[in-house]
Amino acid sequence: MIALDGIRKAYGTRSVLAGVSLGLVPGRVTGLVGPNGSGKTTLIKLILGLARLDAGRILLDGAAIDDDGRYRRRIGYAPQAPRFPENLSVGEVFAMLRALRPDDASDESLLQDFGLRAEWDTAVGALSGGWRQKVSLACAFLFTPDVLILDEPTAGLDPIAAGVFKQAVRHARDAGRTVLITSHILSELEELADDVAFLSEGQLRFAGPVATLLERTGMRRLEPAIAALLGGLRVTQGAGAAESPSIAHPRRA
User: Fold this and answer.
1) What is the pLDDT of residues 12-42, one digit of tens each?
2) What CATH class is the domain 2-230?
3) Which sequence spans correspond to the domains of the chain?
């Protein structure tokens, strides 16, 4: 489990995250949502060790993440705008990753389901945005990481590929892995998320089960519920989310 405990981050005089505490637990998918500039990207960078905390702690299975980066082997990450050495072919990208982690077992399920073998000898620089996204997602899932962090993962995907991706996320959740997804496509997020964490102006305004958010906003769908939060509706946190860096509740069926 990943626990964010009172994390703070500022750039100069601008506070980006102000005392955020949040738990991301195995076997659940958490949707991280919020307006532009709310701190979502910074939160992800802090988890990945790409930025340093000003205060607070980030724990993985109860231990603070260290500076040598070994904990990152347990995380699969797909950025919003994936970048690869453009002269490498698709096959060479995966060969490079396996060479970096020769002792780690790999799972090619998503690679196969996306049909990436058909582009195996194509240079990444010649791929469309949708194909690059498929490569990025297949890389994120490749070593069956305990934690998946997926930033706008369906951007550029066609409906069939998006369906393949969603099924992969469900399989990861059912296998007990921890999944964090950021997306502005709330209708798609609604299909996948068990929990939602809503950031606004660097503060966690709600964290808890999707069902709890819908109940407390009086909405039937996630999109209008999030719109209500954006409009300033005050909603109490989901059980345990505000007081503790963990969210404890059964998984949604």
Assistant:
1) 999 999 999 999 999 999 999 998 889 999 9
2) alpha beta
3) 2-230
